[in-house]
Amino acid sequence: MAKWPYSTARWQRLRRLKLQAHPLCEACMQQYKQIEPATEVDHRIPINGGGDPFPALEWLASLCARCHNSKTRYEQLGGEGDWMHIGCDIYGMPNDPSHPWNREKLK
User: Fold this and answer.
1) Contact 26, 63 (CB under 8 A)
2) For a designed S-S bond to 25, which of 1, 36, 71, 92 qualifies (C-beta 3.0 to 4.6 A apart)?
3) What domain range is 13 assigned to?
4) How many domains would you assign to the chain?
């Protein structure tokens, strides 16, 4: 974690604010319907993909170590798109809110 921007006081302050605002893992709550404490703060758009190193809080995700490692591995293997919206939840429902299954049916 010694690499910029993570070694800066500005990042540490932003990280602390995000964990205070969202202390639970956002991915676990969305995908697994579980409550896990968040220990990591992750950029929704990676810095090396053009993301802001110090974005607004809504562009950061509070994650547990398991979900953070999973997201990082997904990106390392060339995965694209919003990692949190890929696949289905434990009930088989699509995670992507724009998936046709999740759209309201027009009457």
Assistant:
1) yes
2) 36
3) 9-43+54-102
4) 1
